[in-house]
Amino acid sequence: MSIDGIAAIVVILCLGILLFLKRSKIEVQRALFPILYVVMYRSTIGLGVMKRLASRFPRVLNVLGVLGIIVGFLGMVFIVGQLAYGSVLLFTSPEAQAGVQPVLPFEAKGVFFVPFLYWVLSIFLIAVVHEGAHGVVSFLHKIPVRRSGFAFLCIFLPVIPAAFVEPDEKVLRKARAKQQLAVYAAGPFSNVLFALLSVGLFAALSPVLSSAFVTQGVVLSSVDAEGPAFAAGLREGMVVETLGGVPIISLANVSSVLGNASPGDSLVAATKDHAFELVAGASQKNADRAFLGVQVKPNVVLNDEFTEQYGVFLPKAAKWLAGLFFWLFLLNLGIGLFNLLPIGPLDGGRMFELVCARWFGKEQGLKVWSLVSVALAGMILMNILAGFVR
Asked: What angle do CA 200, 205, 210 make, to 5 degrees?
């Protein structure tokens, strides 16, 4: 079993034991208990820190609050446009991919896979930052926050971690529109800022990574059983170091060799131990282009010169951290934008509800908000289902 698999089992079991020990202090929201349910652990953890931040940096936070509202509405327009465009493509393009997929730590059709350790750390950090931002901006505008805490979506055992804060809804609803919008937008905006920070941290590691690792050939990530490569004896997982006599040091080398070859040409693909002679086929998309029937990825290995000087821990740690920052960037951006969709209880939904009430009046605005929410929720469901069946 992989390290991720072992870590997943250990973490899930530990969370299950912890929740059992704290069972007197948790609230269970039963959906299909004990198969599917949500547990919530309410406390006041972090509220003091949020309040101190709000009182210490009011000017900066007010500016960020306004910026967050602007970014929030721009992000809302962008993500609605992307969702609508992707939904249209599902009907007009047979090759179109689903625009919305569940983010989960296992590989399956229709699932956006993230390795478990990266997934659990990223989701936890994203939730803490997102909800913490809501809390800070609530305190900034004198809106009491009653509780904070952690929640877990459980499928038999706790699987997906989350965090939450609970501002006083009555006080929040009576606050000025600008203040309400600032509170709602704070979470998604904090995710966007966190994504930018993650990019910066990833870039800071780039010099170490470029020195510590080198590319030696390409790994065959998949081999078409009907293709020329499979017929020649090449199999998934093999590392090809030369192709057609050309040393492979990047994916560009592979494209270059195939670009200069024609269907019917003989090519030799060499691994460390063997040479395989194959006859190139013709690409289905371009009959004049050579086709091998493989998908490849770089074979990245440690640079011996670097490890002789610094050892192996530094480059491996840097690589792991770079992976974490990559996933933090991607998931912060995706989750932040998703939360800006004008749907029901999402932050974007709360913002849109407020705007609709101001523009159309309370009664008519509620109808517009409900109609948009249902339409977008339908698009999301359609995309998720398409990911499983296409």
From this structure: 130
